[in-house]
Design a protein that fits this description.
Blueprint (H helix, E strand, L loop, with lengths): L1 H19 L11 E3 L6 H18 L2 E6 L8 H12 L9 E7 L4 E6 L9 H17 L3 H18 L20 H24 L3 H8 L1 H6 L2 H27 L3 H12 L2 E4 L2 E6 L2 E6 L17 E3 L1
Parallel strand pairs: 1-2, 2-3
Antiparallel strand pairs: 3-4, 4-8, 5-6, 6-7
Length: about 300
Amino acid sequence: MKTALRIFLFAVIFLFNSVFAENDVPYLTGRVTDNAQILSQETCRLLAESLKAHENRTGNQIAILTVPSLEGENIEDYAVRVFDEWKLGQKGKDNGLLIVIAPNDRRMRIEVGYGLEGTLTDGTAGQIIHTIMTPKFRNGDYNGGVTAGVKAVIAVLEGGQLPQTENTDSFKAEEPVMPVKQRILIGAFVFSIIGIFTVIGIVTPGIGWFLYVFLIPFWAMFPIAIIGTTGALICLITYLILFPVLKLFLRKSKWYKKVQKDLKTKGSASIGGFRFTSGGSGSSWSSGSSGFSGGGGFSGGGGASGSW
């Protein structure tokens, strides 16, 4: 009985440690620690030489770590743990920098020591990730992405400016960096609200054209935090074209003409559970037994973190 109890307790402890234990911090074996094995030996050698030369010139200590997965841990927390345990940078100067890449999670981060934050700001680090490293990672070119990212980091630390790049995917610099789950939830909320008003504008005579103009800034700005600048621009262009096309198409239908006639003769019309009343040069609307309310937007993300 005691033996069975001991086995049970050992099993519980093992399960607890498996679930709640933090991802281990690897030993610092060199300037490039490629535990995920995504870099070639030649790339590791060249990166190590480049980082060593930069340290000799400036005293800044830069390290690269790749791990297969973060095991569910937030990359920001993991990068801080690695940075603190490795003690990157000179004491008193805090001039260390860590690049962490987790390919299975498609996450990466540039963790900057306090002493370098004035030169390599969070915004600049994020720009390096999204404009230089991310496009190459998406194409499976980890060697090229890490090499280009390191060159950009060194260029900023030694010259204060990002080098000119030939990246033709420039809009990706402003893509959202918030986690995918947050984007899905916030996107469902935002697009449902402005989507409902868009549908009301399309199917409603009179006030519909007012809503068309009124919703333009909402379609232009709200999607940026969710699907990025390029996605927001596509949404806006689609809205500007489809709204009038659909509205003009519906004007020819019997249903639309009946609603228009009811507004003129009866002063009100019912559309999808909403009752619209005419007044002055346009029309107004109100809900009957059903109703809804809208809210504001949300901004989030991780400064110098990114995904691909």
